[in-house]
């Protein structure tokens, strides 16, 4: 006849085995959720493995004319392009970002050459440490531009902006926007700053400090 002590010990082992099995199921479920991108934390956004802006691509009427513009006006440097690309184009690089030019064979895909300057239109913007020097250069080269200053009453900072277009009507902005500190507008998201290039002033979230 089995003793009471033996029965209690057997019941204890059974409960332990059941608890271990449940723990294994929970662990497997967690691993599957993490593998699927859930990370195991409900409501937490998955952090993307992005580093920085690599390049801006432009369709152009004349690759040669666009190369001259980006070199002489903005100081970009022509660099080698992989020979695997079997279409007409060119790569330029400076300031940590590339400009990739692609020869267009369809006029309908290009912007109108005589397009009015509108700061609210699509554009790329370059941070500048001396907006006045760029304005002087644009005037010397006979390039039409628009200038404006935006005053931020809350911070007391002001931003100077110059707007002009490249040979194909794509708008470019030169600014000192870093007079304004980058402040996250919400609690979600984490700002990543590339360690190997220039960064704007950033106000970190409290939980990141």
Kindly summarize this structure in a few lines:
With 209 residues, the chain is an alpha/beta fold. The protein has helices spanning 4-35, 63-72, 131-140; strands at residues 55-60, 77-79, 89-94, 97-103, 123-127, 146-151, 158-165, 171-175.
3D structure, described in words:
The protein has 209 residues and is of the alpha/beta class. The protein has helices at residues 4-35, 63-72, 131-140, and strands at 55-60, 77-79, 89-94, 97-103, 123-127, 146-151, 158-165, 171-175. The strands form 2 sheets. Strands 1-4-3-2 form a 4-stranded mixed β-sheet, covered by helices on one side. It has a 4-stranded mixed β-sheet with strand order 5-8-7-6, with helices on one face. A hairpin with a 5-residue loop joins strand 7 (158-165) and strand 8 (171-175). The longest helix is centred in the N-terminal third of the chain and has 32 residues, at 4-35. It is globular and about 45 Å long.
Keywords:
about 210 residues; 3 helices; 4-stranded mixed sheet; 8 strands; disordered N terminus; single chain
So how many helices?
A: 3
- Rg (C-alpha, Å): 29 Å
Unreliable stretches covering 5 or more consecutive residues: 2-8
Globally, the shape reads globular
Helix-strand sequence: HEHEEEEHEEE
Fraction in beta strands: 15-25%
Strands side by side in the biggest sheet: 1-4-3-2
Q: Estimate the helix proportion, in percent.
A: 10-25%
- The structure class reads alpha/beta
How confident overall, as mean pLDDT? 81
For the biggest sheet, the summary is: 4 strands, mixed
Distance between the termini: 67 Å
The total strand number stands at 8
